[in-house]
From TrEMBL:
Organism superkingdom: Bacteria
UniProt-listed Pfam families: dUTPase
Family matches, as InterPro entries: dUTPase, dUTPase-like, dUTPase-like_sf, dUTPase_trimeric
NCBIfam families found in the cross-reference section: dut, PRK00601.1
Gene coding for it: dut
Organism name: Gallibacter intestinalis
Protein name: Deoxyuridine 5'-triphosphate nucleotidohydrolase
Length: 142
């Protein structure tokens, strides 16, 4: 599949390995940004995309930044809808205990393209029975 991309920085998201599902997104900054513990910031990528109807781009945290420095996405997974044409920006939060410096060109998140379907609701008074039923939140044990 081809997706239209405008890049203000020359960066082009790419798969790092043959089996990668996500493409790295890089920060596009005029100067480094210091993210203090507990601080949230939108970090620009300089990227604009045109997704086909029926697809979304999911923006996800990079596991290395999360485990090593406590840097993650404030909304866990962000969705870029097919009709959005603005710049992709990454909402980062520092859950660590030290300042974290984000430099221009640094890999800050990953993006996965996913197919979806829109649904319509069918209002009913009951649902079909299953073996699991309403069990959830640890009902099967540890």
């Amino acid at each position: 599949m081809e997706i239209k991309l405008v890049t203000k920085s020359g960066n082009i998201p790419a798969y790092e390995t043959e089996g990668s599902a996500g493409m790295d997104l890089k920060a596009v900054l005029n100067e480094p940004v210091i993210l203090a513990p507990g601080e949230r910031r939108l970090i620009p990528t300089g990227l604009f995309i045109e997704l086909p109807q029926g697809y979304e781009a999911q923006v996800r945290a990079r596991s290395g930044l999360a485990i090593k420095h406590g840097i993650t996405l404030i909304n866990c997974v962000g969705t870029i809808d097919s009709d959005y044409r603005g710049e992709i920006q990454v909402p980062l939060v520092n859950l660590g205990q030290e300042d974290f410096e984000i430099k221009n060109g640094e890999r800050i998140a990953q993006m996965v393209i996913a197919k979806y379907e829109q649904i319509s609701w069918k209002i009913t008074d009951e649902l079909s029975e299953t073996e699991r039923g309403a069990g959830g939140f640890g009902h099967t044990g540890r």
